[in-house]
Design brief:
Elements: E1 2-6, H1 11-23, E2 25-29, H2 39-49, E3 53-56, H3 63-68, H4 70-91, E4 94-100, H5 123-138, E5 142-147, E6 150-151, H6 163-173, E7 177-180, E8 184-185, E9 188-189, H7 190-200, E10 207-210, E11 217-218, H8 219-230, E12 236-239, H9 259-263, H10 272-284
Parallel strand pairs: 1-2, 1-3, 3-4, 4-5, 5-10, 6-9, 7-12
Antiparallel strand pairs: 8-11
Helix pairs in contact: 1-7, 2-4, 4-5, 8-10
The structure holds NADP nicotinamide-adenine-dinucleotide phosphate.
NADP nicotinamide-adenine-dinucleotide phosphate binds at residues 6-7, 9-13, 30-31, 34-37, 57-59, 61, 76, 80, 98, 100, 128, 147-150, 156-158.
Length: 285
């Protein structure tokens, strides 16, 4: 298959490109080659390629910045998704669009399944939810994939890093590190998302999917595990979200259950802890 990857030099895009190249003709598209918020550009670039599948990782997802620039967030996360959805129907390709655990408000306190009602609480989350709806309503052959707390070997371009790179940096620069224990989620390596996405695009099981590692953990426990595995000796303390000024509302519990992947027998996601161990062994040792 011909698989075009939008955001191919990003955190998730890098792994998607590497893994899709093993089995498919993979076409990397960076921001300098495509602008998803411009329908003419999307149409022209993708008509030239004629892909069987387009996987889009592009987003405005620096969460505090989205609050300050809601027009940009809507343009990229909302209109950009609509553009890809319309062009996917015109050209007949399958479309993968990634979304976020932030569509939930966290009050459920046990894992969210795809059929749970959403309650996005920030400009970022609302625009990503708009993107989901636009893809699901305008593209026939769509996979909308919600991910959470992602980390990869290439830092997230929009945020300039990921949780692991931040912890390693802080442990070197600060006398002590404080991390919140009252935000619970399931951090997931981009490599695992890329592998599972590649399996999903082989199917016609279109729809909405949660795709995170198994299990759940607080940011503090996750940091503790990273510090232990990497032997970081800087003191690490538990903190509360109340200790930090709240710029944006974030869900305090956003664990996703991969219910739809399980229904079709395609949940290959590992538990967060062995996944973290593998990632650290491959990238930090
Ligand atoms: N990071 C997380 O923890 C997290 C959690 C939940 C969901 N997600 C979702 O996961 C996806 C991938 O995240 P990531 O960490 O891989 O992001 P990333 O590293 O920031 O990569 C995004 C890529 O998209 C490109 N891009 C941005 N705006 C574009 C536009 N308007 N048109 C075309 N390309 C554009 C970026 O290029 P430039 O940098 O050159 O602009 C970059 O190559 C996003 O949809 C995000 O919302 C992430």
């Amino acid at each position: 298959m011909k698989v075009a990857i939008i955001g191919a030099n990003g955190q998730l895009g890098t792994d998607l490109l590497e893994i899709s190249s093993q089995h498919h003709e993979a076409i990397p598209l960076t921001h300098s080659e495509i602008e998803i918020s411009d329908i003419d550009n999307v149409s022209e670039v993708l008509a030239d390629i004629h892909p069987d599948v387009v996987i889009c990782t592009a987003a405005a997802h620096n969460v505090p910045k989205c609050e300050l620039e809601p027009d940009v967030a809507f343009k990229i996360n909302g209109i950009g998704s609509l553009n890809l959805a319309k062009v996917s129907n015109e050209l007949g390709f399958k479309l993968v669009q990634y979304s976020t655990d932030y569509v939930f408000d966290g009050r459920k306190m046990n894992p969210y399944v795809e059929s749970d009602p959403v309650y996005p609480q920030s400009v970022y989350a609302i625009t990503k939810y708009a993107g989901e709806q636009l893809v699901m309503n305008y593209s026939t052959k769509h996979f909308v994939v919600r991910v959470s707390g992602i980390y990869g070997k290439i830092p997230c371009r929009a945020k300039g890093g990921n949780f692991i790179s931040t912890m390693v940096k802080l442990s070197k620069e600060k006398p002590e590190v404080r991390v919140v224990m009252d935000e619970i989620l399931t951090p997931t390596p981009t490599k695992e998302i890329a592998k599972n996405t590649m399996a999903l695009i082989e199917t016609d099981a279109y729809g909405l999917y949660h795709m995170t590692c198994e299990g759940e953990v607080s940011w503090y426990e996750f940091a503790r595990t990273i510090f232990d595995i990497l032997h970081l000796e800087t003191p690490l303390y538990e903190a509360s979200v109340k200790d930090f000024p709240a710029v944006v509302k974030r869900p305090f519990y956003s664990v996703l259950e991969n219910a739809n992947l399980k229904k079709i027998g395609m949940n290959e996601m590992p538990h967060w802890k062995p996944a973290l161990l593998t990632f650290l062994e491959e990238n930090y040792k």
